[in-house]
Amino acid sequence: MPKFVSPPERLLRSAASHASASSTSTGAAYRAAFCAQTNKPLVIKKVYDTKQLGPSELRIRIRACAINFADILMCQGAYQEKPNLPFIPGTEIAGDIIEIGSNVTTFKKGDKVLALVNLHGFAEQCITDVDATWKIPNTVSYATAATLVVSYATAYMAFDRRAELKKGETVLVTAAAGGTGLAAVDLGANVFGANVIGAAGSAEKTALAKVKGAMHAINYREQDIKTEVLSITKRKGVDVVFDAVGGDTFEKCLRCTGFGGRLLTIGYASGSIPKGSYRFKDPKLYKHSIDSVVRLLGEGKIHPHVGASFPLNKINEAFQFIKDRKSTGKIAITMD
Ligand SMILES: NC(=O)c1ccc[n+]([C@@H]2O[C@H](COP(=O)([O-])OP(=O)(O)OC[C@H]3O[C@@H](n4cnc5c(N)ncnc54)[C@H](OP(=O)(O)O)[C@@H]3O)[C@@H](O)[C@H]2O)c1
């Protein structure tokens, strides 16, 4: 029997409690994308932010913010966290520090950083906590930095702590050209030394998975996953499944695991929604995973793929692009 090792929990998102735009009539104005009504296009508006920094906080000039599946669901009112309207979505950002709180010693003005915020990422400015902010090398682009953590730290934690993936083992990754899937392919093949089978929904997507390091690819719109996996593994099945699709695909993957196999249920792109957050349930493991992928990025051992970037005023087009399954890797919103 395969072992189910990862409950459907989101790795990183915290309770979306604080963070609506502060709108007073003084202070420097910046643009932000507001969800004013669920299931309606986001609206770009000016924010007048006069909020004082707390002692451990940083004010960031945002240069890029990643789009995550959960952002789209939240704006549809279909995510487990339902912020009060209006709110500014977006949780994964990169930019430059423009102000530091009175107790901050580990960062300085001008540092290039990535950060996780509860909300307020699709904006030109935000406030972050030092504990949720990481310095990034100057050689890394803002778009790459903004799109790193949720996908790569999720895949890293899943392989390292949940599946205990070993060199030479075989991993099947579904939605292998998606944000999380491609991170799993990259980490699985290039960091953990596994033999990766990338399964995705078009020839272009499977080709991309192979470029990233997948040894074999399956186009599951045209080929049967189980038949192909059994043929590739000479009927042994895979050691680990990394599934971010759920539904029928998950069922099929279940039948592809070999003896002692581990099934990582990462997400449900095809339907229902994962719950929970490692950020609060296991903050040490959460931080360790992010530290690890930031380090691997600096060492040039992983290569995040930003499939496309859209300017802030095209955020609705960017959301639609992902909903239409046209995206590969991660999509970034840039604040130029
Ligand atoms: N556990 C965690 O902490 C964690 C972290 C990040 C993401 N997630 C979850 O993982 C899932 C994927 O996230 P992601 O960022 O990788 O998304 P993504 O980049 O948009 O990739 C999703 C992919 O899923 C595939 N898919 C299959 N059926 C689909 C359907 N009915 N509708 C849309 N897509 C479908 C598509 O690829 P093909 O065309 O190749 O099938 C699509 O490109 C989401 O449920 C997300 O919430 C969980």
TrEMBL record:
Entry-linked SMART domains: PKS_ER
Gene3D superfamilies in the record: Medium-chain alcohol dehydrogenases, catalytic domain, NAD(P)-binding Rossmann-like Domain
Any single Pfam family the record assigns to this protein: ADH_zinc_N
UniProt GO MF annotations: oxidoreductase activity
Residue span, Enoyl reductase (ER) domain: 37-333
Stored PANTHER family: QUINONE OXIDOREDUCTASE-LIKE PROTEIN 2 (PTHR43677:SF4), SHORT-CHAIN DEHYDROGENASE/REDUCTASE (PTHR43677)
Protein name: Enoyl reductase (ER) domain-containing protein
Organism of provenance: Trichoplax adhaerens (Trichoplax reptans)
